[in-house]
Write a structure and sequence with these properties.
heterodimer, A: alpha+beta, Ubiquitin-like (UB roll), Fumarate Reductase Iron-sulfur Protein, Chain B, domain 2, 2 domains, 5-stranded mixed beta sheet, two-stranded antiparallel sheet, 36% helix, 15% strand, B: mainly alpha, 3 helical TM bundles of succinate and fumarate reductases, 80% helix, binds protoporphyrin IX containing FE, binds iron/sulfur cluster, binds FE2/S2 (inorganic) cluster
Chain lengths: 247, 219
């Protein structure tokens, strides 16, 4: 028996002064191995050409297709309709600026975030292209890679109660990013410098431990563990600053 | 995350970190106190004398006279610190409420429960502390008489679950926030914490019933 799926999709075009936020309903026959990407494309092709949503890689790699699926932020291209009930409600991610319908601008937010946490290796070493790269311990490289897997989809930010209430909160993605550089021996930033970036209420001390980020991250990044480690590290740095022994 | 439209140099300070430490430490201190408090009060289940002996010990050693107000101060300090996180603006409250409803996420709801119980504890806890500490010494008979008056029975029946929920969630929260509990152990720890909370509520209820019965036995 093929199911008939009902999609309740948020519609609004902020560029059009006539447009008012509302929900449109579409009915679609479920197909085998149907993802939300396939369903949305079908709806756009067959029912409403004006439906706006983002996709790029269709394989859970680029992070473009994040949206709120029956209340939970997730990647539409990775979500199979067979895992969802007959009625599927799709909303754009909160926190980010709405482009239209299900499409939001995560780019501006993420580039500001990357600038704020200075998301690059800080080093004074001159690169010499003629010599071989320095080697990194393999276990460590893998640990760093584990945190590198973030696709900047924004699900963790959209799911975070703190980020929803407070515009200035950095969010789990930024805290995870900093944790990645703290691990990296090539980054010469001192603990004080890291503290300046995330040892604040916009950073790790604003996090209230709701762990929605951990529960929604479509790449299963170890956000809970990294947030815990970071809070301790920054907590100790603050204590060390009291005694003027922080590096 | 806001995009800065001004350029200014933020003075380097660890203030957020120190306040977070204090929030956690006052919370942990209050948890320890609540557990001791439960032992004192529940001792009445082993007889009026058991409770009176413990209470007398606390007074003779001046722990009630000094410790009581200290707990009161910790309570206020913890409130002032944790209140930094509570949404007081309607706009934030409604954001949080809608967010909770959208997400269907237990831990997010637990936080809402923590913030709501906190406000109730602030008022009822303060009243309770004032009443008890301005009427020392603590004796089982006095407590029993109070509860049998009816008003305090209802009062404690509300305050007990509020405190136990807040303590239970707070305990879990400290563990995950500071990395004592990792991804692997989280669900198990949450289950353990829920059971602990239920046990404490049960002990509290039994104790209240016991207080109701005391005078009946003695008259
Ligand atoms: C004056 C009344 C109280 C208020 C307004 C209050 C408020 C709060 C709030 C809003 C939080 C959440 C903070 C966050 O998520 O960052 C919290 C956490 C906590 N509360 Fe309370 N609370 C009160 C009384 C108590 C009492 C009486 C206890 C213990 C018996 C307690 C134990 C805790 C613990 C252990 C935490 C977790 C600390 C943390 O996450 O850092 N609180 N409290
Ligand atoms: S941490 Fe996870 S949820 Fe957050 S942006 Fe990265 S991949 Fe997405
Ligand atoms: S643990 Fe909670 S408050 Fe902290 S970043 Fe994750 S969702 Fe936000
Ligand atoms: S389209 Fe790239 S992650 Fe879904």
């Amino acid at each position: 028996m093929t199911r008939r799926l009902t999609f309740n999709i948020f519609r609004y075009n902020p560029q059009d002064p006539e447009s008012v936020p509302h929900t449109d309903n579409f009915v679609l026959e479920e197909a085998e191995r149907m993802t939300l990407y396939i369903a949305l494309t079908k709806i756009r092709e067959e029912q409403d050409h004006s439906l706006t949503f983002d996709f790029c890689c269709r394989a859970g790699i680029c992070g473009a297709c994040a949206m709120v699926i029956n209340g939970r932020p997730g990647l539409a291209c990775k979500t199979l309709t067979k895992d969802l009930p007959d009625e599927i409600t799709l909303m754009p991610l909160p926190v980010f600026k709405l482009v239209g319908d299900l499409s939001v601008d995560t780019g501006t937010w993420f580039s500001a975030m990357n600038e704020k946490v200075e998301s690059w290796v800080h080093t004074n070493k001159k690169m010499d292209p003629t010599v071989q790269e320095e080697r990194m311990n393999n276990a460590l490289a893998e640990e760093i890679y584990e945190l590198e897997r973030c696709v900047e989809c924004g699900c963790c930010v959209a799911a975070c109660g703190t980020a929803n209430m407070r515009q200035d909160f950095l969010g789990a993605v930024a805290l995870n990013r900093i944790a990645r550089f703290i691990m990296d021996p090539r980054d010469e930033r001192t603990e004080k410098e890291y503290f300046e970036v995330v040892g604040t209420d916009e950073g790790i001390f604003g996090c209230m431990g709701l762990l929605a980020c951990e529960d929604v991250c479509p790449k299963q990044l170890p956000l809970q563990d990294q947030l815990g480690i970071l809070r301790r590290q920054m907590g100790w740095t603050a204590v060390k600053q009291l005694f003027h022994i922080a590096k | 995350m806001a995009i800065d439209t001004t350029i200014y140099v933020r003075p380097q300070s660890g203030i957020s970190a120190y306040l977070d430490w204090l929030q956690m430490l006052t919370g942990a201190g209050l948890i320890l106190f609540m557990w001791s408090h439960m032992i004192l009060v529940a001792s009445v289940n082993f007889g009026v004398d058991a409770m009176n002996t413990i209470a007398k010990f606390f007074e003779d050693s001046y722990m009630a006279q000094v410790g009581g107000p200290m707990i009161g101060l910790t309570f206020l300090l913890h409130f002032a610190l944790a209140a930094r996180k509570v949404p007081f603006r309607t706009e934030q409250q409604s954001t949080m409420w809608k967010h909770g409803k959208m997400l269907h996420h237990k831990d997010t709801w637990l936080w809402v429960v923590q913030a709501v119980t906190a406000m109730i504890i602030l008022i009822m806890g303060a009243i309770h502390m004032w009443t008890v500490l301005t009427d020392l010494p603590i004796t089982a008979q006095k407590s029993a008489a109070r509860i049998q008056g009816g008003f305090w029975l209802v009062f404690y029946l509300i305050l007990l679950p509020m405190v136990e929920l807040h303590v239970g969630i707070g305990f879990y929260r400290i563990a995950v926030k500071w990395g004592f509990i990792k991804r692997k152990t989280r669900q198990g720890f949450k289950g353990f914490e829920n059971i602990l909370t239920l046990i404490f509520i049960a002990i509290g209820l039994i104790t209240i019933v016991r207080f109701i019965l005391i005078q009946v036995i003695q008259v």
